[in-house]
Amino acid sequence: MYDTIRYHVIPPAFVVFFTGVVQYLAWSGRGASVDFSALWGNEFAWRFLGVSFAWAYVSLLVPSRKCKGPVTDFGQVPEYQDNGTLYYWATLVTFVLYNFFVDKDLSLKIYDNFPQILGALNTCALLLCVVLLIKGRLSPDVREKTVMKKFPIAYEFYSGKELHPRLLGVDVKQFTNCRFGMVAWQIFILAFFFAGIKREGFNYGFAVNVLLQSIYVAKFWWWESGYFWTLDVALDRAGYYLCWGCLVWVPVLYTFSSYFMVAHPPLTSPLISLLIFFVGLSAVIINYAVDREKEIFRKTGGECEIRGEPAKYIDVEYVDEKKRLRKSKLLISGFWGTLRHLNYNFEILAAFSWSCVGWHHGLAPFYYVVFLTGLLVHRVFRDEEKCRRKYGKYWEKYCSIVRYRMIPYVF
Ligand SMILES: NC(=O)C1=CN([C@@H]2O[C@H](COP(=O)(O)OP(=O)(O)OC[C@H]3O[C@@H](n4cnc5c(N)ncnc54)[C@H](OP(=O)(O)O)[C@@H]3O)[C@@H](O)[C@H]2O)C=CC1
Ligand SMILES: CC(C)CCC[C@@H](C)[C@H]1CC[C@H]2C3=CC=C4C[C@@H](O)CC[C@]4(C)[C@H]3CC[C@]12C
């Protein structure tokens, strides 16, 4: 029963549901009813995507320093282009300059053609998932155990076949997640903000919404090399969930509060907006600090200081897929000694902060927060299942020291 749901029901149901929701969001966000003709895109949308994809692709080809991700159970060490921060700032500055000096209506055009852009993106993303499925089945880069095993086709399409596939000389997940998804998030919210100014004038609430998200996204680039060690990159395979998710779902849902605010400007006063800004900023900073603490701990092999004292940890052992015994450490001081997923709490608080400037308009500005909360609670279980399988009794020991996941005494 569980396997039927997991392999046969959820994948097709999610593909249909999420692909459909995109159409709803694209139109409801501007107060219009769904028009399916946008699914094919239009000339502007295809040109916009052509340039964006080419720009992202070139950023992964130009000579640059490289960084490595964690070694997989089957001994592969993925290699990434380490020029994310430069790419992010170059894209941002180019977009702003182009918008102010070359095409003053660019942001409005992006806003007006957003459903068409999403339609075209959806086509490209689905095509990519088909290519990844065929490549994974016929000619995977690495012939490891899981990739060689046959699962139901809908499941393979949804979850992906390969862990670190490369296409046209670039790492697919770095392209979809980092080079496209995270930059699209930044560029779209900025375009919506400029479009909002053109239509309704400057709005403090809207400014706080976009500024907080921009700080959040900019922070991502400082930490990009840390991202390569997360579940998405180390565990999730390249398929609909991750690649379609980053190519389409991130651009539509993660930016939705800003998209919505163009047609529904926030009514929060400048003072309240400022207060919300400081709450949101603190949340982004703490979220980053928690991630960073673990990153430094891992990079130094545990030989680092946390708040002026040597890091406290427990030594753990695990057996990898090749049956080799490996050693590692789990941090139990600093942030990681308080709750097992403290970073998620501040992730949600940050998103709540930038959404709540639009609270006068009901639930719509909070769609992302609702999704994020579900995603992160589900991720807590996925992550802990992974850790329990990996570390066994050592994970139980860690859980007995750091007892709660996200809410003290409750969860
Ligand atoms: N906006 C969004 O949609 C989302 C944002 N995020 C954000 O991304 C960031 C990364 O999140 P995510 O990858 O989910 O998870 P974490 O950064 O919480 O990483 C979890 C992993 O860290 C290792 N770990 C767990 N506890 C310890 C410890 N005490 N000491 C050392 N290592 C430990 C384990 O991996 P190992 O096998 O190495 O031991 C575990 O699998 C967060 O800021 C999160 O908020 C995450 C998901 C969605
Ligand atoms: C069924 C699908 C619609 C669901 C798609 C989900 C994915 C798009 C997202 C799953 C995990 C997300 C992320 C994880 C960690 C991140 C680090 C953070 O600092 C920035 C955001 C992100 C890259 C984020 C992006 C979307 C997911 C990959």
TrEMBL record:
It holds the Pfam family ERG4_ERG24. Its EC number is 1.3.1.21. It catalyses: 7-dehydrodesmosterol + NADPH + H(+) = desmosterol + NADP(+); cholesterol + NADP(+) = 7-dehydrocholesterol + NADPH + H(+). GO terms for molecular function: 7-dehydrocholesterol reductase activity. Keywords: Cholesterol biosynthesis, Cholesterol metabolism, Endoplasmic reticulum, Lipid biosynthesis, Lipid metabolism, Membrane, NADP, Oxidoreductase, Steroid biosynthesis, Steroid metabolism, Sterol biosynthesis, Sterol metabolism, Transmembrane, Transmembrane helix. GO terms for cellular component: endoplasmic reticulum membrane. It is a multi-pass membrane protein. Its main location: endoplasmic reticulum. Pathway: Steroid biosynthesis; cholesterol biosynthesis. It is found in: Endoplasmic reticulum membrane. One of its GO terms (biological process) is brassinosteroid biosynthetic process. Gene3D superfamilies: 1.20.120.1630. The chain crosses the membrane at residues 7-26, 46-64, 85-102, 114-134, 180-197, 203-222, 242-262, 268-290, 330-352, 364-381. The keyword Lipid biosynthesis applies. The keyword Transcription regulation does not apply. Belongs to the ERG4/ERG24 family. This is 7-dehydrocholesterol reductase. The lineage of its organism: Eukaryota, Metazoa, Ecdysozoa, Arthropoda, Crustacea.
